[in-house]
Amino acid sequence: MNDELHVDHEDQILDAAMRWINYDFDNRCKHAPKVLNHVRLAIVGLQPLIETMSEPIYRKSPQCRKLVDAALKYLQVPHERVIMPPLNTERRRCADVPGVIYALGGLGTSSNSAVEFYDPLANQWIPTTEMPSLRARFGVAVVKRKLYAIGGCDGFTRYRTVEMFDVNTNTWKKKPDLLFQRSAMATAVVKDTIYVCGGYNGTDSLASVEVYRPDWRCWNTRPSLAIERCAAAAAVIDEQVFVIGGHNSAAIYNSVEVLDTSKSVTTLWQFGKQLLSPRCRHGATTMGGQIYIAGGYDGSQFLNTVNMYDPEKDQWYPLSPMNMCRSRVSLVATDDKLYAIGGHDGKSNICSMEIYDVRENRWHFGPSMKLHEGGVAVGVIPVSSTVITR
């Protein structure tokens, strides 16, 4: 079953599969194990799986029963997952459906609690519910269509606090605090697990790493980075987290560290392919199985340069530069395009957005933000399938 089916939740796939089977049960029963094998039952959710146990196919087919029971065990006995056969827990992502880009907080005098989103279908920025807290230089993660605002600072104090925004209800909710206060961290998500790497605690650059899942009550530690990194950027390929560049207040890095999250939780970070040049305060994202970085600062100048990493060749390549130099820029990917948002050009904060089309290999300006300028935190929420089908 295609990874790029556009659904909000995997239980929609399970529901469609069960309706197809039950429509002509006698003739389709024999195909049910093959059909259910393509449903990612481990991410369906506990209640839909329990309801599936009352379906005729659960009683009729030992193979289907085995698939459902394995997923139930995965959800109900998480401490035994390391000895269970692997299950597909990757969420489906449709590259052909544009996401909604949310810009949060930032360094502007009046914008560090503001939230607005860019709708690529309407080609405009739209204000929405403010954050409860003033935040700058914080991390943003998107898990299950929810935005997490993590750590950061108010200009004086570094935060441990975390808040979650539900885009369906436009409401904020407090979530468990980080273990350590930090700002200017690198943030990534792998299979619904949030990774927060490095940063700055008000005194020192950090190497520590914390992880969190929505079904956990608290954050947990993971092996630290090999070196302290503040103002680095993060991106994910497959199940590998790349923490790219950054600085330690004394030096700006061209080094990259990589963590393979598919291995043991004690797996250490390894150094990856070095950047073409040092940079910090840059943006990073993944698109089409490749990593893109844009902008930043190299210690002497603000950058408009853009590089791409090809994991198959283990090599960084230069691409067309942005129209403007942008330090503290946010970079996201959706609809096969890169969006470079906000930043600082060395003289002033920027509210503009540039869009990169891979096929054209050039940048052009999109609509400017209405509420923000300078460094903003950004996350992409997939457009709901209910919106697409209206």
Key structural traits:
single chain; 390 residues; alpha+beta; Neuraminidase; 2 domains; 4-stranded antiparallel sheet; 7 helices; 24 strands; 14% helix; disordered C terminus
Explain this structure to me?
- This protein has 390 residues and is an alpha+beta fold.
- It folds into 2 domains: 11-83; 99-388, 6 Propeller (Neuraminidase).
- 14% of the residues lie in helices and 32% in strands.
- It contains 7 helices and 24 strands.
- The protein has helices spanning 11-23, 25-28, 32-37, 46-52, 56-60, 62-76, 385-388, and strands at 99-104, 115-119, 124-128, 139-143, 146-150, 162-166, 171-175, 186-190, 193-200, 205-212, 220-222, 233-237, 240-244, 256-260, 270-271, 283-287, 290-294, 306-310, 315-319, 330-334, 337-341, 353-357, 362-366, 377-382.
- The strands form 6 sheets. It has a 4-stranded antiparallel beta sheet, with no helix packed on it.
- Strand 8 and strand 9 form a beta hairpin.
- The longest helix has 15 residues, at 62-76.
- Residues 385-390 have low confidence and may be disordered.
CATH architecture title of the largest domain: 6 Propeller
Largest pleated sheet: 4 strands, antiparallel
Let me know the number of strands: 24
Query: How many helices does DSSP assign?
Result: 7
Instruction: Write out the CATH superfamily name of the largest domain.
Output: Kelch-type beta propeller
Assign the CATH class of the largest domain. Answer: Mainly Beta
Number of domains: 2
Mean pLDDT: 92
Protein name: BACK domain-containing protein
Domain BACK: 2-52
Keywords: Kelch repeat, Repeat
Pfam families: BACK, Kelch_1, Kelch_KLHDC2_KLHL20_DRC7
